[in-house]
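tool=predict chain=A
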Amino acid sequence: MVKIQDIELGEFPLLLAPMEDVSDPPFRALCKEQGCDVMYTEFISVEGLIRDADKSVQKLDIYDYERPIGIQIFGAEIDSMRRAAEIVEEAQPEILDINYGCPVKKVTCKMAGAGILQDIDRMVKLTDEIVKATNLPVTVKTRLGWDDNTKFIEEVAERLQDVGIKALSIHGRTRKQMYKGEADWTLIGKIKENPRVHIPIFGNGDIDSPQKAELYKNRYGVDGIMIGRASIGNPWIFREIKHYFETGEILDPPTVAERVAAAKQHLKHSIEWKGLKLGVLEMRRHYTNYFRGFPHIKPYRSKLVTTFDPADLNAIMDEIEEVYGNAFVA
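tool=predict ok
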């Protein structure tokens, strides 16, 4: 049984990676229904939290059906991080996660996210202060290093464990790589082989099929797998991986009806959570993913991203279901 402190996650948990503008409550609900074991919020700016910015505070919203869930924060200043940790604790998640992996320039230029990989001593000190500031178990998500010359993740794993983190998720790329090239899990495997490391180690990067999940599980010995981009428009990946682990069988892909139902549910919850205008507008980025691979889908997609009325949007999706029938779409 894998545990983060005393939180039981199952024998081999599947985790939803925190993704800005993706892993919000409407999307998390779909992933949970499909078997995701642990989810994280979108990353939250600590400066936004301590200034009570609406967008940051709204990201603290969590629901009982999502548990266990982690709230992820990012920042660079010790005082701000400490105060934000106290605010997060009031929201009562199971886990507080620190983002040391975001590669976006506007984050890293402030020495936040993956930017802190340029100063490991500061990373360790910051983590130590956050662990001391909260009663929640603290976990970290990070990358192999800043670039190919600074892959210090083996040292980082030991030192962060020593200051009290309860689990570590590692994306198998450097910050310089962003999301390009192939994720390298070799160092993740070496950390699992290190007898000094006893906290759960979760691997992240490029897991986009049940077969690859099983291969990396066996090859690198990780305690669980975190899935990010492969889940966008495809929350079914969690059930597909679990089914494959249990039976060795590949599930049929979701039907057109399942895809339409998921997109409709996503839209409904998006409007409920964000309000009509923002809920409709921010849903537009997801339609391409839900209906990816559908032949000649462009006219329908164009309607979905230009229509505003929810009833009309649902009618367009009903038409997609009627036209494409119950076919399986890869």
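The CA atoms of residues 39 and 108 lie 24 Å apart. The longest strand covers residues 69-74.
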